[in-house]
C-alpha cells in the first residue's frame, strides 16, 4: 500500500486572496441565512405564545398556526436546496486553493 | 394463542434474524478501530442520510408525537417543527467542519485545536451524560411499549432490546449499526406512508376535511387546532423550541455519523438526504395524530396509555386490522433497536477512544487493543444502561429526551461553534464552556417541575424552585457565556498558527495523510 503525505503552508493559504474569497462567499450566505431562519423559526412560538393572531382560520378550519408551522418545513427544504447550489461553488473554490498550495510528498510504505 | 400474536411474533423474528445476518457479515470486516467507529468511512451520502434518519427518528418521535398530536392537537406539532429545523444548524454550521477536522468523536474535533487531556476528558463526560439520559429514556420507553405491544413483562422486554443492541454494536460496530438504522428508516417510512394514505383515503384526500373531523372528534373542540392546549408558561414553549433547534447539532450519536463518509461533500449530501426524510416523516405525524383522534378516539387512546403512546399502533389496528398492527409493532421494535444501537456506539466511543485510548494510553494503543477496548466499552455501556432502565421502570422519564437535547445544546454546541469560528477561543474557554452548559442544564432540571412536583407526579414531592420544564433558555446562554468568559479571562496567549490550520482544514478539507 502506498501512503503519501501532503504538506501545506497554512499562513500562505490564509493570506491567499482565493481563500479569502471563499471565506467571504461562505460568510455572505451562511450568516444572513442563519439569522433569517432563526428569526422565522422563533416567530412561530412567540406569536403562538403571546398573541392569538395564529388562531384565525386560513383555509377552512385550518388555522394560521398550522400554516406557519408547515411553512417552517418549506423554509427548511428551500434553504437546503439553496445551500446545495452554493456549496458546489464553495467546493470548486476550495479545490482551486488546494491545487495551488498542496505539496505531495510521495513515499512508499510497506 | 391467537392469530395476532402469531403474525407479530413472526415479523419480530424476521427483523431479529435479518439484523443478526447483517451483524455476522459486518463482524467479519470489523477488525480496526476505524471500521468499528466509522465503518471505514465508506458509506455513500444516501446510505448515511438514511442512517442519520434511522438514528434520529426514535420511538419517542414516532409514537410520542403521533400521540401528542392526537391528544393535544397543535401543541404536539411543535416537536415536529423543532426536530426538523435543527437540521439547518447541522447543515450550515456543524456537519462539514466536523467531518473535516474530527476523527471518531466530538472530543477529537475539539482536541484537533486544543490538544489537552482535560478538554478531551470533559468533552467525553458531556457525551456520556447525554447518551445516558437519552438511553434511559429510550430503554424505559421501549420496555413499556414492547410490554404493551407483545404482552411480555417489562424486564424481559428491556433485556431483549439490551441483548440485541449489545450484539449489533459489540460484534458489528458501525457497519452493523448503520445497516440496522438504514433498514429501520425504510420500514418506518413505509409504515408512515401506508397509515397516512389510508387516513387520507378515508377523508377523500381533503386536508380541510381531515382537520374538521379531527377538531370535531377531539374533546378540546376548536382549541384543538390552536396553540396553547396543555401548556402553562409561554416561556416554556420558547425554551423547548430553543433546545430542539440547537440540540440536534450537539447530539453525539448524530455527529458520530458524519465520520462514516469519506469527505465533507458526502457529509453534506447525507445531511440533505436526512433532512428530506426527517421532514417528510414529521409532516406525516399530522395524519397519524389526527387519524388517531378521528378513528380511534380520544378516550380509547388515553385508556391504553395516558401519554398517547399507543395512538399510532391503535390507529393501524383500526385501519388495517391485525396485519397492519403487527407490521407497525415490528417497525416500532426495529426503531427502538436502531436508536439504542447508535447510542451504545457513541457512548462506547467516548469511553474506549477518548478516555482509554487517548487519555490512559496517550494515543499509543495498538489497533487490536483499540478494537478490544471498543467492544468492552460497548458491553459496559449496554450493561449500565440496562441496569438503570430496569431500576427506572416506574419513573416518568419522558423529559429525559428533552433534557438530552438541552445538554447537547448547552454544553456541546458552544465549544463546537467557537472551535471552528472564533480565533481567540482557547483551552480554558472550552473547559469552562462545557462545564457551565452541562452543570447549569443539570442543576436547573433538578430544580424544575420535572423532578419537583407538589402533587407527587414527579420524582420528588415539593414545589419546583425553577419554573420552566426545559431550562435551555437559561443554560444555552450560560454555555456560550462560560466559553466566552473563560477565554477572555485566561492568561493563555493566542495560538494563531493552530487556528490557521483549523480554519484551512475546516473550510477546504485539507488532510496531511492521503491513502491511495
What does this structure look like?
The complex is a heterodimer of chains A (110) and B (516). Chain A is built from three helices and four strands. With 110 residues, chain A is an alpha+beta fold. The termini of chain A are close together. By secondary structure, chain B is an all-alpha fold. Chain B has one domain: Sodium/glucose cotransporter, CATH 1.20.1730. Chain B is built from 19 helices and three strands. Chain B has a two-stranded parallel sheet. The longest helix of chain B has 50 residues. Chain B is globular and about 65 Å long. The termini of chain B are far apart. The interface between A and B is large, with 57 and 52 residues.
Principal-axes shape call of chain B: globular
The number of helices of chain B is 19
**What is the terminal-to-terminal distance of chain B?**
59 Å
Look at the structure and give the mean pLDDT of chain B: 89
Determine the fraction of residues in helical runs of chain B and give it as a percent range: over 70%
- Provide the β-strand percentage band of chain B: under 5%
Adjacency order of strands in the biggest sheet of chain A: 1-4
CATH class category name of chain B: Mainly Alpha
Please give a handful of descriptors for the protein shown:
heterodimer; A: 110 residues; alpha+beta; two-stranded antiparallel sheet; 3 helices; elongated; B: 516 residues; mainly alpha; Sodium/glucose cotransporter; two-stranded parallel sheet; 1% strand; globular
What is the topology?
The complex is a heterodimer of chains A (110) and B (516).
Chain A: E1 2-7, H1 10-15, H2 17-50, E2 57-59, E3 62-63, H3 64-101, E4 103-108
Antiparallel strand pairs in A: 1-4, 2-3
Chain B: H1 3-29, H2 33-38, H3 45-56, H4 59-72, H5 74-101, H6 106-113, H7 117-150, H8 154-202, H9 207-217, H10 234-247, H11 252-255, H12 264-295, H13 298-304, H14 311-360, H15 367-391, H16 399-421, H17 427-446, E1 452-453, E2 460-461, H18 472-488, H19 496-508, E3 513-515
Parallel strand pairs in B: 1-2
Helix pairs in contact in B: 1-8, 1-14, 3-8, 3-12, 4-5, 4-12, 4-14, 5-10, 5-12, 5-19, 6-7, 6-16, 7-8, 7-14, 7-15, 7-16, 7-17, 8-12, 8-14, 8-15, 9-12, 10-16, 10-18, 12-14, 14-15, 16-17, 16-18, 17-18
